[in-house]
Amino acid sequence: MHDSIKDLKIGIIGLGYVGLPLAVEFGKQFPVLGFDINQGRIAQLQSGHDSTLEVSDQELTESPLLSYSSNVSDLEYCNIYIVTVPTPIDADKQPDLTPLIKASEMLGKVVKNGDIIIYESTVYPGATEEECIPAVERISGLEFNIDFFAGYSPERINPGDKEHRVTNILKVTSGSTPEVAEFVDQLYKKIILAGTHKASSIKIAEASKVIENVQRDVNIALVNELHQVFSKIGINTREVIEAASTKWNFMKLFPGLVGGHCIGVDPYYLLQKSTKCGYIPDLIRKSREINDGMAHFLANDFLTQLVQKRINPIDCKVALFGFTFKENCPDIRNTKVYDLFLELKSIGFKVVIYDPWVSSKDVFEEYGIEIKSDFDDDYDVGFLSVAHNEIIHFLKNKKSDKFIYDFKSIL
């Protein structure tokens, strides 16, 4: 293991929402190679632009020691590797460790004596040491904790959030030996102004990350279920929550479509691991069911409201306002608005989607549907699905008597 933090050359594997901000910060102090298998992404970053909008063009110029590559052999010069690849679920909602295993096998070709591999991707407790490290050993022929070492420091990036950035979010760290744990902790302290929390083991750090998202999922599921109750009663969920949240310890959350690559995905990792260990976590499982079923509920509630307002649903053209998984962010990964689109189509509606934040090319490649970036008046009724600032501004300033379904009562 390296005795000095001064001699580090850091390779960051995966330059998405997590990897790029990290590479930019480390690149201010250390030689950093940002690696991604997507050559288009590398070319884009070399030209000085980040399409995820997590890092501004100006910020990209502030890391003089950062370079980019999609060539694996360039990683041989590094001695610290930080893995920030996606951990998705498959069509059966089972954890898909393929990107993580492939990244580990790739690092097996370049890792050397004394090197440290740090994982940031969200996984179940045990995945780093039970799945990733054996893949590195198999390809490299090196022995874990003798020839090379590992750390785990879960990412806490919140896409689209310009207030909570990588440097001012406290970071959990861990290592495969006490010495490595201290080294990893000191390394992150170089860039994390908010400080670090050194966990006693990699498994503790892995578990701490996955339950952050499980906790959010369970609490949002409660609010989504309450919204369905209040819809039956005929009262406004937002008004109920505003009243209840006057109590100091009430957790203020609103109903919503729970998509994205974290809250809508990570609980399945803990579900699978727990089930393998012989315990079925009913609350976690049921929360996932409630949140995944929200698109179905909203589509049917929308239809009910049209009938109640005597709006003919036959041949009715619906405008879905917003497609990303959250507001003011271009991220379309695992967006539940797609589920909503399919539900509305299955009922028989014609649907047009407007979203000024997304690339229509990316949406078509990922989901096979057309999307409009500019607003027009070619619809009969609207459905506010994602509250981008531009969408709210457009709908509030539009002089129109067209019905807009607004389940969050934002308008």
Overall description:
- The strands form three sheets. This protein has a six-stranded parallel beta sheet with strand order 3-2-1-4-5-6, with helices on both faces. A four-stranded parallel beta sheet has the order 10-9-11-12, covered by helices on one side.
- Strand 5, helix 5 and strand 6 (149-152) form a beta-alpha-beta unit.
- The protein has two domains: 5-202, Rossmann fold; 295-411, Rossmann fold (3-Layer(aba) Sandwich), CATH 3.40.50.720.
- Helix 4 runs parallel beside helix 5 (127-140), helix 7 crosses helix 10 and helix 11 packs across helix 12.
- The protein has 411 residues and is of the alpha/beta class.
- The protein has 14 helices and twelve strands.
Brief overview:
The chain is an alpha/beta fold. The chain is 39% helix and 11% strand.
List keywords for this structure.
four-stranded parallel β-sheet; alpha/beta; 14 helices; Rossmann fold; 411 residues
Which helices and strands, and how do they pair?
Blueprint: E1 10-13, H1 19-26, E2 32-35, H2 39-46, H3 57-60, E3 66-69, E4 80-83, H4 98-108, E5 116-119, H5 127-140, E6 149-152, E7 171-173, H6 178-189, E8 196-198, H7 202-233, H8 237-244, H9 266-276, H10 282-292, H11 294-308, E9 317-321, H12 337-347, E10 350-354, H13 360-367, E11 381-384, H14 389-397, E12 404-405
Parallel strand pairs: 1-2, 1-4, 2-3, 4-5, 5-6, 7-8, 9-10, 9-11, 11-12
Helix pairs in contact: 4-5, 7-9, 7-10, 11-12
